[in-house]
Amino acid sequence: MTFYDVINCNAAVIHPFAEHIAYFLLFAIPMLTTVVSGTASVGSIFGYITYIDLMNNMGHCNFELIPKWIFSIFPPLKYLMYTPSFHSLHHTQFRTNYSLFMPIYDYIYGTMDKSTDELYEISLKREEDFPDVVHLTHLTTPDSIFHLQIGFASLASKPQNSKWYMWLMWPVTWWSVVLNLVKGCSFITERNSLEKLRLQTWAIPRYSVQYLVKWQKQAINGLIEEAVLEADARGAKVLSLGLHNQDEELNRNGAIYIEKHPQINIKVVDGSSLVVAIVVNSIPKGTTEVLFRGKLSKVAYSIVAALCQKGIQVNTLYENEYEELKLAVKSQSKVVLSKSYTQKIWLVGDELTEEEQMRAPKGTLFIPFSKFPPNKARNDAFYQYTPAMVAPPSLENLHSCENWLPRKVMSAWRVAGIVHALEGWNVNECGDTMFDIDKIWQASLKHGFRPLMFST
Questions:
Q1: What's the start-to-end Cα distance of the chain, in Å?
Q2: How far, CA to CA in Å, does 120 sit from each of 65, 82, 100, 420?
Q3: I need a surface site. Which of 105, 224, 245, 330 has the fewest CB within 10 A?
């Protein structure tokens, strides 16, 4: 067994239930002591639990993440803080490295494994993981960091939703915000695999609200550009842009990176064609007319054009939208300026207001084509998820939810990048370019992706 095998054996270890009870009793002693002595505080108990939980999860994370320079700056830290490779030897050798968190006791009592330092060095030199497809997203809210796979598994396994107890995490949340503002590059949040493709999700360390601030856009564009170049340098075939990373006002749906770096091999995909395909195929059969309401974009124009080709009448509420759609769509007779709100199928995007929702008839189905879900103002209406597809069973390691979507479901923008790589399409889909809608829809189904048929 090699040293690399040793550290990876850590993943196969399961702690007995009795051991968890013992841990709980031991870790409770300091808290009970402060309570009895009258020196307890919410801050100290919260900080203690956070530190214990963080260190325990780090020791069992199955890869070495503590950089060597930390111990070079402060050598005594070697005796005060353990590493994942240190603890992996306890699970594989059993009679060594007993200390939990503080190795100094193993040094004192002679139970330090002789291969500890060598394993640490080898673990740091592990082979780099080169992805085939990168999905570039970003953080949404300050507490969204806890919903990532690198956060809390119990939160990551459920759709992102604001909970009251998240306010108790604000000391940690605040520090994560500071670190993300300081951090100058994207970071890996998830690794998956499908049909020999290695998939990775990277996150830009910025939040949704920052994308709406004009003076932040240049810095954000710099972070996205660096991620595109890094993914290309690592040999990735496709990079898909998620959420605000592909905003037209920010980077013209990703076109500026291709124009600025024409020599790169990676293909940039904004997923617009698959978004259109999902929305069009979500409309119930037999529908003769829909109401369109939302910010006009290349996705919006393509949806309206596809519906008009199918003979479905598209109603709009405002004259400026009506005039712009008529200019963009060949089947002008199918675009109608509506004076009522009687339609029960609404295609909605950004800029939909709660007041407009309240005018819809009871039982209306709202189908969003936006990246973010609309604020739900009705309890007697149906709201479909933002464009997404159910992942095939063969897609591995998909344990966390993608933002507000259910488990095992991926956004259309993320799926589009994967399908482009699976099909070997050597084209960019960014700027004004739109891929063949029917072609990408059929390709998605062929590779096992399925429509998300239910609404909320």
A1: 51
A2: 10, 11, 17, 39
A3: 330
Determine the residue type at 98: Y
Helices 84-93 and 42-59 cross at an angle (nearest 10°) of: 60
Q: How far apart are CA 293 and CA 50, in angstroms?
A: 46
The whole model's pTM is what? 0.77
**Tokens (6 digits) for 286:** 């037999």
Place of tokens 């037209």: 248
Give, for all 456 residues of the chain, the pLDDT tens digit. Answer: 333 333 343 444 556 666 667 777 888 898 899 989 999 888 888 888 888 877 877 777 777 778 888 888 888 988 988 888 888 888 777 788 888 788 999 999 999 988 888 888 888 776 667 899 999 999 999 989 888 877 777 788 899 987 777 787 788 788 888 878 876 789 889 999 998 899 999 999 999 999 999 999 999 999 999 999 999 999 999 999 999 999 999 999 999 999 999 999 999 999 999 999 999 999 999 999 999 999 999 999 999 999 999 999 999 999 999 999 988 887 777 899 998 889 999 999 999 999 999 999 999 999 999 999 999 999 999 999 999 999 999 999 888 899 999 999 999 999 999 999 999 999 999 999 999 999 999 999 999 999 986 655
